[in-house]
Structures are given as C-alpha cells and as structure tokens.
Amino acid sequence: MVIVRAPVRISFGGGGTDLAAYYEPYGGFVVSAAITRYCYVVVQPTADGSIRINSADYHVWEQFKRGDDVRVEEPLILPKAAIALARQRGQLPDGVALFLAAEVPPGTGLGSSSAMSVALMQALAAQARQPLTALDAAEQACALEIEHLGKPIGKQDQYASAFGGLNTIEFTVDGVTVRPLGLRQEVAAELNARLLLFSTGQSRDSAGILREQRTDTQSKALVVDTLHHLKALAHQMSDALAAEDLDRFGMLLDRAWQEKRRLSDRVSSAAIDQWYEAAREAGAIGGKITGAGGGGFLLLYCPPQKQPGLRATLTNHGLRELAFDIDFIGAQVLPLSLSEQHAAADINVPTPAR
Asked: Is 157 among the catalytic positions?
C-alpha cells in the first residue's frame, strides 16, 4: 500500500501568466504558497489484476476486470487518465485499487485538481517502485492535465503542489523554474498569521474562464496588457516579501485584484465585490478570489489586531473560514506504520458492494 498526500495552494500574484498562450511569447511569473490542506491518493495492488477506482469526493466508484479496457472518460476521468499514462510509462504492470479524497471540494480555486494529479502520478510511480522527484511529479501532472486531457489551464498549481513552500515560479518556453523565497522563519510565521481564507460557498467554472482568457490573450491587447501588469505586480510582491515588508505585500494583493478584474467580467461578481469591500472596511489591507475567479475562496491579508472584527463581519455575510498554514514539504509518500503494512498484505482499498 502507498499513501501520497499533495498540498493545494494559494496564488498571490501573476496568475494567468502561467498559461502557454502568455508565457511562450512573454514569459510568466507567479508568487504562490502551498498550504496544509491536502489531496490524498491510496494505491495498492489487487490480487485478481482488476482496476478499482473510488472517489470519496464525488461518491463514485468503478471496477474493471483484468484485461478490460479502461476508457479515459467521465466519470473519474482524471484517475483513469493517470492509469493510462502510468501504463504507457511502465509504472502499472498489474491491477491496482485507487482511493482518492481531498480536504477541499473541487471547483474552489485552490488547485485541488492539480494537487490530485500530482498525488496520482506520485502514488502510481511509488507503487511501481519508481518514486518521482518533485520536478518529475509536477511535469507528469502537467502532462496528464494539459496534454492528455486537454485542460485549458496553466502550470503553476502542479509545481506549487509538488514542491511545497512559498515560492516564485517562472515559466518560459525552455521550462519552469521554482525558487523558494527563503524568508526567515519568524517572517514566514508573521505572514502566515496575516493570511485568512473564507469560503464563498460558490463553485465556479475555472475551465471556462481560463479558456476565454487563453483565447483573449491571443486576440485582445487589453488582456495582454493586464497580464503584463499582473506579472509586474508579482515581481513587486516578491521584492516586498524579500524586504520583509509584509504590509506592502498586502497592499499589492489589493492592487493585483483590482487589475485581475479587468481580465473578464466573470472574474468577480456583485456578491464577491460586496464581500471584499466589507472585508476591507473591517481591516483587511488586501486580498483576492483564489484561482481563476468567479467563486471559491476569498483570500485576505489582515493585521492580527483587526482579525476578530473581520471574522465577525464575514461570518455575518455567511462566509466560512478555512484554517491553514503554509506547507513547506510538498507532495510526499507518507510512511506506513507496522500495522498498516500488515493490513496492506491482507486487504484492498474497499469499494461499495453492487
């Protein structure tokens, strides 16, 4: 049995510049952090050579007998594609049982789909005794989502999840470079204490928003100009953090959010604008909607002394806080206890009876 967990992420600045439509001609740059909310994959061999997939999040499971064709289609298209890719790479010689679960729901802007992709590729490789480096896990997850499934997404989520930590990530036609910001421990703790996440209770169609942005990047000067500004603000965020000027970082979050709203009228909404304004009036210096926008989580930077009032305000608006810390480990294969090792020899990941 192999258990892998991969963290989701919060993106601070530069989102959208990690799409190939932008970074191939101009180069992309983002600032992001992995957080202590995870996607999990459990994988173990099956005695009869069957393929079994069980998703706790979607309450869906499927089973295929030895030799059956596992078609890459919904439901459970992501793990099916991961199985197909692992088989192509010689990482799936026999049948396996997969169990998938996430601490955050899909469609909430925290990069859970990409974190699950990283966990899947790492878990299948580890089961085949071919463990992946963080770079390999990120690249294989990108290949899974972008090349094999044709998702109109960028690359920052996969690298943030695989590497963990607080990083700048640069994208060019020659590759991706992850650079830890290297903050002193006490500064990283102060930043962590000033960051808050609140669920809006609204999921969103990130693929639709990103597909539109990818098209507009190739045809609309305003979108390209906005992405140039977002990239410049991401560099300023990196500089502010390196200078340990945390409040300036918070102000830059606000400037980047105002800029990002120019990308599309689908990035924000009347409700999101209302919640954000209420948060600012309650003491937040800056913030943004996570991911492509349109819903998900509201990320806020707020001084500790203002946080009780901020929490009360957003609770009154019906938003729920999600506690987290910055994850500095990234995707990892979790060690098994002795009892788990013995259990793995006797049981398979359970699936519901038909």
From this structure: yes
